[in-house]
Structures are given as C-alpha cells and as structure tokens.
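Hey, quick one: can you model this chain's 3D structure?
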Amino acid sequence: MLDYDLTAVIPARLGSSRISEKVFQTIDGKDTLLSRKIKQLRKILPREKVIVNTESNLIAEHALSNGANIHWRDPYFSKEHDASFSDLIVHVISQIKSEHIAWTPFVVPFFDSNQFRLAFNNYTKMVINGNYDSLLSVVPIKEYIWNEKQPLNYVADHRHTISQDLPNWFQVTNGNYMAPKKIMSKYKYILGKKVFLDTREHFCKIDIDTLHDLKIARAYHNLELVADNSSTLKAIVSKTTSFKETVVKT
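Sure thing. Here's the predicted structure for all 250 residues.
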C-alpha cells in the first residue's frame, strides 16, 4: 500500500468510434480490458481508491463485480465532440476526494501492477518530495521522425545519424498520468507544467485505439504465453535432469 492519498481513476464510456464496446474487449479470452486494468490497480490500491468513471449501467455492474467503485458521469461528457477533453477532466476529478490522482486508461493492457508500483514510487520521489508538479509515464523512442516537410530529430543528408545516436525522444504510453488534484483543477488537464518523465518498459506503449492495435495486443499476449511456457518447460527439464543425475550417482 502507498503512504500518500492516491485515487486511480479509469475513465470508461460505452461508445467507441473505432472498436465496438472496446471496454468489454479481451486479449486473453478471460478478462475484459476494463477488468484487467481494475485487477492491476487493485494489487496496489484498496477498492475505494480504484474508481471507474462511467455513464453506463453495464460498465458500472462489470466494474463493481471486479472490485472497483463507481463515479457516475453525466452522459453529456460521453458524447464524442460535445464536451472537450478538458471539460471531461474537470467533471471526472470533481468527484474525487483524494489529494493525488492517477488517470489510468484501460486501453493500455500491459501497463501492469509492477509498472504502476514503480511509477507510483517515482511520483513520491519526484513530485511529492521533489520539484515536479506531475508525472507522465513514457517509453523512449529511437526512430526517425518527420513532419509533413522535414525530419525532426536528425539531418537527412550525408550527416545521417545511426538510430542509437538519435536524441532522446519519448512516446506517451497513455497508461498513467499523475498529479495532485489541485494541479489538475488549476490547469484543467491531467498534467501540470513541470512534468517528470517516468520511463516504463516498451510493452507499456501498446495502446488499443484501433482493431489493428487490438490484434497486436492479442499477438503479444500469445507470445508472452509461449515464453512463459518455454521457461516452465526448461525448468521442468532442468529439475528432471538433476534428479536423474542424483539417482545415477546413488
């Protein structure tokens, strides 16, 4: 458990323009994206500190049955292009009583409890006890970036830079944004003006926005299963071999 007053909020609306009822999609055939996120956070925070903010009775029932509490959202804030993102933030955080807030979207399935624990600890060091006013979880990128007209992080001529020597740029994971409630209220946003970049593992950048992203997440999950099974098999083989050698010696 944490030694500061933190509530993690999971914004969840039923509608989705690119993936139908995205909140109920699954990558492992068991947990939905929402229940997966709730369980990741519940390994660190008590039920009353894990909030699902929604307008949907279906989502509310699902969240309650998986260990989260509910804050109700005015349906106006769930309609695309009606309310601004800033308006939504103000509406969501107005119901939260904690001094500190983590905004934790359900669409980043591999941002797990271990990554949250590390990020929450960094928040203690860099925001509560440090000189920053907010925290943003990111992953480093070493890729060649262009806008419509020119490269942004290298020179595209005979001075070409190998990828390892590219400048330090970072991609937002969309998995974790943290700030004191008073900072979010002041700026009407989920970050302040002096942001600490909390670097996470690369798998944290898998963010489900389209069907293509969902397929990638499912494929990555299957690869993890293969890797886990391979490790287990190696351990069994190793133990069996050691046992056989012991029997032979005796």
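One thing worth noting: Strands lie at 6-11, 50-54, 69-72, 100-103, 134-141, 169-180, 195-199.
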